[in-house]
Specification:
alpha/beta, about 45% helix, about 15% strand, elongated
Length: about 325
């Protein structure tokens, strides 16, 4: 055993097993606190010390950090994918719930969209004793299909979990034309609800992929099969807040003028704008959302994370 290895082991024993401070370790070893810090870093790097975190869902710390740095995100959390999509959904949902609980504070405003990933996130939330929290729908409702994954039910259930209030948007997400959309957006209740999101603390978003012919917009009739093909030809890759974007985050205005939702600028302004995805199919939409600065934090499965990196390496 080399002298350096002996020093690393000795520093690790004193710091991790005997719970001494770095300053106390330095005094015993006759060195500086900076040198002790370096020895402890070497201990982890060389496998002398292995840190195990007991957590409900397995994560990929190195891949998480690679995403965070590569895309200049505030944070990224990568969890295990599974051959069973429902298991992947639960993994991502649990990780998103854990992240939300770690940043939740009294008197904060939370915006929520819709979708199965967010359903599993709300399901995984434990009840809190926070006060003054308001949960707000960021867009109109799906109106069809499973009500449990729609915005109103998610906002209500989340508000119950965080001991807060909730506000709905009493309108469909997508209407027939831009004139009707403008009229709805000027209705006092809808306008006031959406304007509250102008200074939101946390925005929680799922995304959809146009490559998926079973996406929420198509399942609920807001997008026909023919329209999906047309928007794909125009460069659209998917949608967030029911709005179409391309891989660079540019809006597909022809469709988006019909959408009852907050402007993307509100997402760019939020302290935390968290994209949640459990499918590699959605990676192009996630990339567009990152490039548009619509999300600054990402919770994603490892298959999706690797696909996201492949998209920028091509």
């Amino acid at each position: 055993m080399s002298m350096k290895t002996s020093q690393i082991i000795r520093a690790a024993e004193l710091y991790y097993e005997r719970n001494l401070s770095q300053q106390e370790v330095a005094k015993i070893l006759g060195t500086s606190r900076t040198s002790v810090s370096r020895l402890l870093a070497d201990a982890r790097e060389n496998g002398v010390v292995e840190i195990t975190i007991n957590r409900p869902v397995a994560k990929h710390p190195k891949l998480s950090e690679r995403l965070r740095q590569h895309f200049n995100l505030r944070d990224a959390v990568v969890v295990d994918s599974s051959a069973e999509y429902k298991t992947t959904l639960r993994n991502v949902g649990e990780a998103a719930a854990e992240l939300l609980l770690s940043i939740l504070d009294n008197d904060c405003t939370i915006g929520i969209s819709w979708g199965r990933t967010l359903y599993h996130m709300v399901d995984a939330l434990s009840e809190t004793t926070t006060s003054g929290v308001e949960v707000i729908q960021m867009l109109g409702s799906l109106g069809q299909g499973n009500p449990q994954i729609d915005g109103p039910d998610l906002a209500r259930r989340m508000a119950e979990k965080v001991n807060g209030r909730y506000r709905y948007v009493h309108a469909p997400a997508v209407v027939e034309n831009s004139d009707l959309r403008d009229q709805l957006m000027q209705q006092p209740q809808i306008r006031q609800t959406l304007e509250q999101m102008a200074h939101a603390d946390i925005c929680l978003l799922s995304v959809g992929a146009l490559a998926d012919d079973k996406s929420s917009l198509q399942r609920t009739g807001y997008l026909t099969a023919l329209e999906r093909e047309q928007y794909l030809e125009q460069g659209a890759v998917g949608h967030l807040l029911a709005k179409m974007i391309d891989i660079n985050g540019n809006e597909i205005e022809r469709y988006n003028r019909r959408v009852v939702a907050i402007p993307f600028g509100y997402l760019q302004r939020a302290e935390w704008s968290i994209g949640v995805s459990a499918s590699a199919m959605k990676s192009a939409t996630i990339l567009g959302a990152i490039r548009g600065n619509y999300i600054n934090t990402l919770v994603i499965d490892d298959d999706g994370a690797n696909q996201l990196l492949r998209l920028v390496e091509e």
